[in-house]
Specification:
Elements (H helix, E strand, L loop, with lengths): L8 H14 L6 H7 L4 H11 L6 H20 L8 H10 L5 E3 L4 H11 L6 E3 L13 H10 L7 E4 L2 H10 L2 E4 L12 E3 L20
Helix pairs in contact: 1-4, 2-3, 3-4, 4-6
Organism: Saccharopolyspora endophytica
Family: Belongs to the HAD-like hydrolase superfamily. CbbY/CbbZ/Gph/YieH family.
Protein name: HAD family phosphatase
Length: about 210
Amino acid sequence: MDGTLVDSEKLWTIALDDYAAHRGGSLSQQTREDMVGSNMTRSMRLLLVDLGLPDGNSEIAGAASWVARRMTELFGEGLPWRPGAEEALRRAKELGLRTALVTSTIRPLTDLALDTLGHDSFDVTVCGDEVEGKNKPDPEPYLKAARLLGVDPADCVAVEDSPTGVASAEAAGCAVLAIPCEVPLTPGPRRTLRDSLADVDIAALGELLAPAA
């Protein structure tokens, strides 16, 4: 979702920078890049360590609550689409393709984002707080989505923008359409790189499954 369908990674950067300033520090570029595609708990631990602050469970929970409140404000102002994303979702629906939203973002924020993406755009949604701590790059988010869809992960194409997300999808056995946003992505055996979803023929996604045959 973030960085793939909507250009919300920049909003996360605003919220994280605001929290760092609130705590009297600043977030390093490297730590911000390490957070891309990660779940809230891991991101908050990275943030607190980067700021030189305690990173126990209560501190992580407090930071997560603060950042989530700020993100709720930012998401509420509207989310800009990534190039080609709105059209790609519409085309997938026209073609009758079954789709799952697999995001590291927590459910409350995802539901806000779905006000932009469309609550009926996906057959199932899997959020970062719904995988029992087995977040990306663990394969579980994509495995759970495949289970909910009733399909084999090997018959799925995952669209991802981050190394963490790509690793999760590939570990689950999916082919990956990799479209970088905030951080670069490299080629791989089951990975097809594109500049944006505007460059993708949604009707031809099945061709990406060929390497698994």
